[in-house]
Amino acid sequence: MRILSTVDVLARFGKALSDPTRAAILLQLKDGPAFPADLADSIGVSRQILSNHLACLRDCGLVAAEPDGRRVRYELSDAKLAHALEDLLGTILTVDTICGCAEPECAQDTPPGSLASPETMEVRS
Q: SMART domains in the record, alphabetically (predicted)?
């Protein structure tokens, strides 16, 4: 087993949260273990897409696969991750109008009058 530095651990966590599908998987698993088919249905993605994202989350060390009979159940690799996700959800995030992230789904690119205003966006849980 390789021991990662704190910077590497945070980078892996950030990589996992940088994708909406992976973030949705983590949020589902925060509430308890689940089978891939159930995760795919609840998130609204194909099983193949879900499988690819679960592989990434396993590689990041955030989820674990547990055999359950003939199926495999997924869960967060550490109960502390559920608390960390709760803490993240409890923060207030304000996004400035000057955004250099170059992400196509950025709030900066949201048309005026839509739900998210490009001037300021607050995210509350």
A: HTH_ARSR
Q: Which CATH number does the domain 6-87 belong to among 3.40.190.170, 3.40.710.10, 3.90.1150.10, 1.10.10.10?
A: 1.10.10.10
How far, in Å, CA of 33 to CA of 37, rounded? 12
Phi, psi dihedral angles at 64 (to 5 degrees): -125, 145
- Is there a contact between 66 and 72 (Cβ–Cβ < 8 Å)? yes
74 touches 54 (CB < 8 A): yes
Number of Cβ within 10 Å of residue 5's Cβ equals 8
Over residues 3-35, the pLDDT tens digits come to 878 898 888 888 888 999 999 999 999 999 999
Q: And the tokens for 74? A: 């997924």
Give every CB contact of residue 83 below 8 A, 6+ residues apart in sequence: none
pLDDT tens for 106-116 read 655 454 444 44
What are the residues whose beta carbons fall under 8 Å from the beta carbon of 96, sequence distance 6 or more? 120
Task: With 0.90 as the threshold, say if the pTM is over it.
Answer: no
